[in-house]
Amino acid sequence: MNTITTVAHPNIALIKYWGKRDEQLHLPTRSSISLTLEAFVTETTITPSSDEYDHIIVNNSQAPDRIASPITTFINYCKNKYALSTPITIQTSNNFPTAAGLASSASGFAALAAALNVFFSLRLSPQELSMLARQGSGSATRSVTGGFSMWHKGVLPDGSDSYAEQLFPQTHWPELRVIIAITQQDIKIQSSRHAMQQTIETSPDYGAWIATSEDRIASMRNALATKDLPLLGELAEQDSLDMHQTMHTSKPPINFFVPATYRVMRTIKEIRTKQAIPCYFTIDAGPNVKILCLDEHVPTLLKTLNDIEGVLYCITSTIGPAVHTKDKEIHSV
């Protein structure tokens, strides 16, 4: 078997995914819409193992248990599902902080699923590949399809209608930018999986947030189709705040924010109000803030963001592609 290297990019949800209706199949409680970050990259290489064991190397080091455990679980799931027996060595690396709320699990499991697909000649369609990646990390299903994608929550118990589809390609909105304000690079104090379950079980606000899903999905699809940044930004910002409110009201409260997170949020609102620059924030399960804006406003925003106390640095990204092998897009075969 040959060495296979795949490339995937993390995504940020504009309409959020937070919580599962089925833990084993990773089926979400609501549909979600995302955009893919071109600037952040995960590369995963699979080679035959030199012994009878699987090996996992993350960022050039033996993976710690917290990171290795879900990868091992996913590999075992794939081997059981497809009757695979060849031991493999997996080497994966990110050019951005791992497990810090920047969706490294999304790009990581998208890249791994794609690499397994090619390495073992599974011949999965993009839809099937998105469902396989879902077993590693729910958000990974959207990194498989890239661009602007929607993950359908589905209604079937077996999860066969819960998959991602690309709504628009990465070239759809060339002026759109995402500035990622890095406020912390350390591994999160609590995993998303545990925090999701706690939120579902204890937050009094969770049901109300879920009830907003369908209307917001429809409005977000319209915002993307018409390239309406104010509509997109207002929806993304509100859905993000509402999601974090469900965490803040869980028992005990969950708060991924650090002081700089709040400073960035306040600053973006001030810029929007006082300078009439259309810019909006969204935050996933972590302290880092993503700012949605147009290319022409990036220099002004960067100048202000980089001066905020607690902001370590900022990265600007365009929209990224679907998962692919190096120099080659993955197609249905």
Q: Would you kindly provide a written description of the structure presented here, covering whatever features stand out?
A:
The chain is of the alpha+beta class. It folds into two domains: 4-169, Ribosomal Protein S5, domain 2; 176-317, Alpha-Beta Plaits (2-Layer Sandwich). It is 37% helix and 22% strand. The chain has ten helices and 17 strands. It has helices at 65-82, 104-119, 126-134, 140-145, 192-202, 206-211, 213-226, 229-248, 259-274, 298-305, and strands spanning 4-8, 11-15, 20-22, 27-28, 32-36, 42-48, 55-58, 61-62, 88-94, 148-151, 164-168, 176-182, 280-282, 289-294, 313-317, 324-325, 328-329. A seven-stranded mixed beta sheet has the order 8-7-9-6-1-16-17, covered by helices on one side. Helix 2 (104-119) crosses helix 3. The longest helix is centred in the C-terminal third of the chain and has 20 residues, at 229-248. The model has no long low-confidence stretch (mean pLDDT 93).
Quick recap of the structure?
This protein has 333 residues and is of the alpha+beta class. It has helices spanning 65-82, 104-119, 126-134, 140-145, 192-202, 206-211, 213-226, 229-248, 259-274, 298-305; strands at residues 4-8, 11-15, 20-22, 27-28, 32-36, 42-48, 55-58, 61-62, 88-94, 148-151, 164-168, 176-182, 280-282, 289-294, 313-317, 324-325, 328-329.
